[in-house]
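Revision sheet: structure tokens.
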Amino acid sequence: MKHRIPKNRFYRLGPLLLALVLALSGLAGCSAEEQQDIVILYTNDVHCAVDADIGYAGLAAYRKWMETKTSYVTLVDCGDALQGDTLGTVSQGEYLVDIMNEVGYDFAVLGNHEFDYGMEQLSALLEKSEAQYLGCNIRYTGQGSSAVSSLKPYEMVSYGETEVAFVGVSTPESIVKSTPAYFMDESGEFVYDFYGGSGEELYAQVQKTVDECREKGADYVIVLAHLGDDETSAPFRSTDLIAGTTGIDAVLDGHSHSVIPCDVVENQEGDKVLLSSTGTGLSNIGQLVITVDGNLTAGLIGDFPDRDTATDTFVKDIQSRYEEELNWVVAHTDVTLTTVSEAGIRLIRSRETNLGDFCADAYRMISGADIAFVNGGGVRADMEAGDITYGDIIAVHPYGNTLCVVEATGQEILDALEMASRSVMAEVSDGENAVGENGAFLQVSGLRYTIDTAVVSTVEVDETGMFVSCGENRRVKDVQVLQADGSYAPLDPAKTYTLASHNYLLKQGGDGLNMFMDNTLTMDESMLDYQVLITYLTDHLGGTVGSDYARPQGRITVE
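Predicted:
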């Protein structure tokens, strides 16, 4: 007997109710021969938070508990698990793969940050992983071997008489939200892409895969996506994908760190599709259930009291391998250096912050450049007042980028500021969450400028999200450059300045800021990003961050 979803038979359950419903349902007592409910557990955007909240040990315990209710339990991850904290940086993602293997993941998709260690390392990580990575929309057009050759577009799983297809979809934003150069060959041509020329191109590729799954007998199609629902990600959002396709029953999503216990979104034909996402870290476990009678339920588990001893021991053993080095105290700060407002709203991607000033100053002072840029998306953690450890520094800059300096015209600098400021809004937040964020937003040193949010952005980007042009009507104005005597003078579009940042931004076009990629390098990958911060702390600040950094220094004005 083949199952197909009855129309409108969807159920949305709250974060804790779902576990209770399952515990009290008819799952317990099913024999191996009987048809049983299918439980799909999911995570997304863990970002190396291996022991935070529920933690991987809690997840492993929950999975084992569910396996006492039904033998049909599958564990999947929807991307951005391998990067985001010191554990990932130190091991280039390998420790995270080890832990995921220990927990027992079955399937995973590549988030944009899975690419952050480069294609060679990605290939090694995929080979190491016991989970099958899926990706129906990742295409390689180069010569020779591909780092993603082990990906499958989908996988069919038989649960008794029911066939479920798992389809992987990664965001086309990966090119600009990881390192663009990693997707190029040695000549600078893009050889990896994500069917991201338009929304329609992505939808068509996914539809082709879904249709193939249906033709092969899939009763249900579950998309494991790393797309998100941020407005700035349109037309590649999970909601856009659902609206542009048919035949998908549920989308488990990542990328935007959204907490979505369960939404119902209409597809191209008006049929209902479940959409769910767990947020970030392991603050929630997602759970999708396909019941014996053909209903779908989805919800989030926000807490679970048990911990799997073997997994907990495994995680602690890995943490102990680098703990001594990470606890080395390198400096002290008299003030808290932060990415957020007093209310806890993230500012680093839309406003100047004191930590942004500190990081940008480090690049400028260590390099001796006229100006320095640090993209807000590359500043990942705060530094509390008190001792600063090696681990604290790596948490701020976990990517392992390297210091570079280029010669750049004033016009190129203006274009970069305009590109990076295109999403900024007059409001900082909607009361709870930051608005107008963009990982490209530039924290600066040796420069000050104003963003006029009343001006609609005229920035144009290409199909991969890279900068193309900007109209005459610009949001960024009153751009001034710091002079040797401490005064400021207007930036000259025709003048050449030295600009410091890292390889991600200057050489690889990170966040779509491609205007510097062909410029003359005066310093080429000389120091790791976190070492830049350490050197600035020890050699230029004498080991102490003082009151000068108590608050933002007035370099960026938003009107």
